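Worked Example 4.2. Consider the chain below.
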Amino acid sequence: MTKIYCVGSYSAAALKGFVANPTQDRKQVVEAMTASTGIKLIDFQITRGIFDFLAVCEGTVEQAMAIKIAVGSTGSFDQFHILESIDISGAATLAQTTLANYVPPQGK
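Applying the procedure from the previous section yields the following structure tokens:
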């Protein structure tokens, strides 16, 4: 399984829900939701900064997209980004081969 990082920001409607019920356990909700897709939730944190939350998971991008589509359809997010952990050496090796076959644009 691949390590997946999900970051995002809540909508105004979701923030209104936090104010109405400030003690709700969002990690418990996220854990149940991710489990329903087969993703293993490693950690979930509410964060300060450009994003409101960070979820660290193990699973597939398709499973993460299912969560993005499902929860996104409720209007709870303004942003939701899925980051997939990769092995850079494989990509760099492929880039080496690609670069050997690339010809930059040239003037006359």
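The helical segments are 12-20, 26-37, 61-72, 88-100. The chain has one domain: 2-100. Compare this with Example 4.1 before moving on.
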